[in-house]
Amino acid sequence: MSWLLVVNSRGAVAKTLSIIESGAVGDSRTTNTVAIQRAIDRLALEGGGTLTVPKGNFLTGSIFLKPGVDLHLEKGCVLMGSTNIADYPPMPTRIEGHTQVWRPALVNASGCDHLRIRGEGMIRGGGAPFWKAFWTRFRADNSVRNLDVDRPRNIFISDSSDVGISGISLRDSGFWNLHLFRCRGVTVDHVDIRTPPGSPSTDGIDIDSCSNVTVRNSYISVDDDDIALKGNKGPESDRDEGIPPVEHILVTGCTFGLGQGVVTLGSEATHVRDVTVEDCTVEYREKSSNVLARFKLRPDTPQHYEDIRFRNIRMDSKGSLITIKPWTQYFDLKGKAAPSQLVENVKLSNITGRMTSFGKIFPPPNGVIRNLTLADIDLHLSDPKVTVEGVADLTFTNVTINGKPVLPPDSMKNGTSSVAK
């Protein structure tokens, strides 16, 4: 085992152990799951340290980091996810708003306070065969749901505080790329996340029941939500004291490409509050209809989204500025009365660029949307119509579309504000 005369995030001299020393082979063919896990276990047993992955292509199934063990991906290394689903043995895991027996991620960590995953290397999931398996099932039966076809995530971190993920690249995840659950104090910095068009459910970052999370200076281009803020689902989900709100989230200095939502609230979420998205760019993609601010309101889940801010954004997208509307995929009232939804204190400001449409804003039958502000918005839209229904305390200040000011809210009729001529 080698030694580094550096102080790690835990304030101790850090040991380092290369996976090569544990017998891993970077030839793209040898399955290294046992060798890599052996190295992790050795570091944990000897008091912790940093597991290093050197240059090479190291094939592996699920590995499980342990408290005190960091992961460093050196430049030129690829931690390759196996394409054999058997290399991800089923176990209880958090997924889509609940815990069930499903497939773990490629890299897993639970209860790993002060964890660091960093470097200039790459984690590349097994992607394509898992995507193909899903689409094959879906085309044969369009009632097939996401979790009906097992697909591993790239990284899953749960119940951990003071987590740092920096410098690395994530590619070709079978399902979500980076899933954070019930974590506190997370920084994602200079991370590059990409999946191609046609890769189902490959969210970039899922921030699930977490607090104090910062995503900065990163690039995300995936074929689902770029960043999704998630929590519980179901008519009594707000009674689960073990699931905290999503709160105090900052997304800053990031660039987004392919996606369905730059930042999406839901679909599984009860309470989301204090979210800021600022100083970001959305790039044009031919096969993308990325929506800047996407609020999914489930008719089967009590939801409260509050104090949400998008500011200083430059967009070039075939999508929309904002959608706040019901989202009914997979919903189930379980025989209970329909709960209510509340969206309040949302502000979009200093946003410029080109898009296809403004988007649609309307509450579900049991929902309320209030205190929505748009200020200093200058957009060029293929469809200039602005449709807003059922919003209390709506404010437009210096909003222009295709060079023309939008009529103020008090001129709205039947919930639709037309563009001034």
Give a nutshell description of this structure.
This protein has 421 residues and is mainly beta. It has helices at 33-45, 128-140, and strands at residues 2-7, 13-18, 27-31, 49-53, 56-60, 63-65, 69-73, 77-81, 91-95, 98-102, 107-110, 116-119, 122-124, 155-158, 161-166, 169-171, 178-181, 184-189, 192-194, 205-208, 211-216, 219-221, 225-230, 246-252, 255-256, 261-265, 271-282, 291-297, 303-316, 322-326, 341-357, 360-361, 367-383, 386-388, 391-401, 404-405, 416-417. The protein has a 23-stranded mixed β-sheet that branches. A 9-stranded parallel β-sheet has the order 6-11-14-17-20-23-26-28-30. Strands 32-34-37 form a 3-stranded mixed β-sheet, with no helix packed on it.
Q: Explain this structure to me?
A:
With 421 residues, this protein is mainly beta. 6% of the residues lie in helices and 50% in strands. It contains two helices and 37 strands. It has a 23-stranded mixed beta sheet that branches. A nine-stranded parallel beta sheet has the order 6-11-14-17-20-23-26-28-30. Mean pLDDT is 93; it is low at 1-7.
